[in-house]
Write a structure and sequence with these properties.
Bound molecules: manganese (II) ion
Strand order of the largest sheet: 1-2-3-13-4-14-20-16-18
Radius of gyration: 24 Å
Distance between the termini: 37 Å
Helix content: 25-40%
Oligomer: single chain
């Protein structure tokens, strides 16, 4: 063989996804991305994602799972875990003793939660105190329009749904210092320029009543909230209100090849796993399970995070219906821990190791292991498992790449992978490369979104 033939035979053929995307799939890719954008606009909180997920699933014939329900191949069920986590399954042709195929993603995203006693007045303006949720870079959340989404749970058991700032509604904002007076602030490190206690939402400025009264702006705001939603200041105590960016998902670039939005991490994988499940045309060989979990951004703990026994209960219930011990099912199961990764950003090239960084438009990115500084906290998938997934993806023409996040000593991150692997489920991390992850406005490539959908479908059908 000559040099060229040797090159072809033994060297890697890494290529941009657009050089591998069949022309016939362009339309499907763009159609998928439009649906994904609509999902993002409908789901700016984990609760809204659950609601929208159920709406889409029910339209495809999914029913709420009831314990003891008789299920046969092709049946579609879901469990709504406390409005914040969604678990769906399409029953397969094989017994659960043969294991299930899982796509696990999370639908919570970094944001600013209201404190229990949020409302106050200062400088004759009304504000809401927040406590940031997840790994936010605080300076990114000032001077951008914000919305307030969530629920106020009343003592009588009713829930009041709040969505302030949608559409033409007024927005909220957090102010920053003007450059003219910013000399001292400018000297601070980036992570101290804006502090957690400065993340206060401006919510009003017009006073009510006459000049003798105190805190007239606060009263005016509370009156407006009461008139519109019917709750009082005390009801903030049992509320979950989340400030999220007031921005719709939008195409980025003259070529419209990317999507900018709030909450790609990790709704971009969550939607892929969900849509692929809804699009299964017939009963798959193995039972297909889609998990949309909450609380990943703060450690996956609690009743709706991936640590929750609600997942084990769901699997036990399904297995019990077939007389299969759940441990037998789990040890034969496979899970794609679908979560985003950091895309190589030439603006910040020095934190990446170029040969092992994920790239926009190179497809869904597999991560054999996550963790940081010496793989600490990693779930390290076995070589055999990676080989299995390579085969599954290649058979279905999924464009994929493999990378790790950043330079060895630069940092790192984790996903729910270890929580699934700890349950004796073979698990591999994979997800969409993101620019500006955790920012109020993140960017992904359409090709990578679509390939993550194809990858999820390939897993369900494997
Ligand atoms: Mn994530
Ligand atoms: Mn994250």
């Amino acid at each position: 063989m000559d040099v060229k033939e040797w090159k072809d035979k033994v060297l890697s053929h890494k290529k941009n996804g657009y050089d591998r995307l069949p022309a016939a799939e362009r339309e499907a890719m763009n159609a998928y991305c439009e649906q994904y954008k609509a999902f993002l606009d409908a789901g700016k909180t984990e609760r809204e994602c659950v609601r929208e997920g159920i709406r889409l699933a029910e339209a495809q014939g999914f029913r709420p799972y009831q314990r003891g329900m008789e299920l046969k191949a092709g049946d579609k069920v879901y469990v709504n875990n406390r409005e914040k986590m969604l678990m769906l399954a399409v029953i397969g042709q094989k017994s659960l003793a043969e294991g299930v195929r899982i796509n696990a993603a999370h639908i919570d995203s970094p944001r600013l939660d209201l404190k229990p006693n949020p409302l106050y007045e200062d400088g004759e303006m009304a504000y809401l105190k927040t406590h940031y949720y997840g790994g936010v870079r605080k300076y990114q959340w000032v001077t951008i329009p914000l919305e307030l989404h969530g629920v106020v749970a009343m003592k009588d058991g009713k829930n009041i749904t709040v969505a302030i700032g949608e559409g033409d509604e007024p927005k909220l904002v957090i102010s920053d210092l003007l450059p003219h007076l910013g000399a001292e602030q400018n000297k601070k490190p980036l992570n101290e320029g804006i502090t957690g206690e400065q993340l206060n939402l401006l919510i009003g400025s017009e006073p009510i009543g006459d000049g003798e009264e105190k805190e007239r702006v606060k009263l005016a705001v509370m009156k407006l909230l009461y008139e519109k939603y019917g709750f009082t200041e005390d009801d903030f105590l049992s509320a979950e209100l989340e400030a999220v960016p007031a921005v719709k998902a939008t195409d980025i670039g003259l070529d419209r090849s990317m999507i900018g939005a709030y909450g790609h991490d990790d709704r971009v994988c969550g939607y892929a796993g969900l849509k692929a499940l809804l699009d299964l045309e017939s009963a798959p060989a193995h039972t297909a399970v889609c998990i949309l979990a909450d609380k990943e951004e703060v450690g996956s703990n609690g009743i709706s995070g991936m640590h929750t026994a609600a997942f084990d209960t769901f699997m036990e219930d399904l297995c019990e219906g077939q007389g299969v011990p759940v441990r037998v099912c789990l040890e034969k199961s496979f899970c794609l821990s679908a979560d985003v990764t950091a895309a190589f950003d030439p603006n910040f090239a020095d934190v990446y190791e170029k040969r092992n960084a994920s790239q926009l438009n190179y497809g869904i990115c597999l991560c054999k292991y996550t963790g940081s500084r010496g793989k600490s906290g990693a779930s390290d998938a076995s070589a055999e498992l990676v080989a299995y997934v390579r085969r599954v993806f290649d058979e279905k023409d999924v464009v994929w790449q493999m990378a790790e996040m950043g330079k060895v000593d630069a940092g790192g991150g984790g996903t729910v992978a270890l929580l699934m692997a700890n349950r004796n489920i073979d698990t591999l991390d994979a997800g969409v490369p993101v620019l500006a992850m955790h920012a109020p406005f993140e960017v992904v490539s359409k090709l990578d979104c679509y390939m993550t959908y194809k990858a999820s479908k390939a897993i369900y059908e494997a």
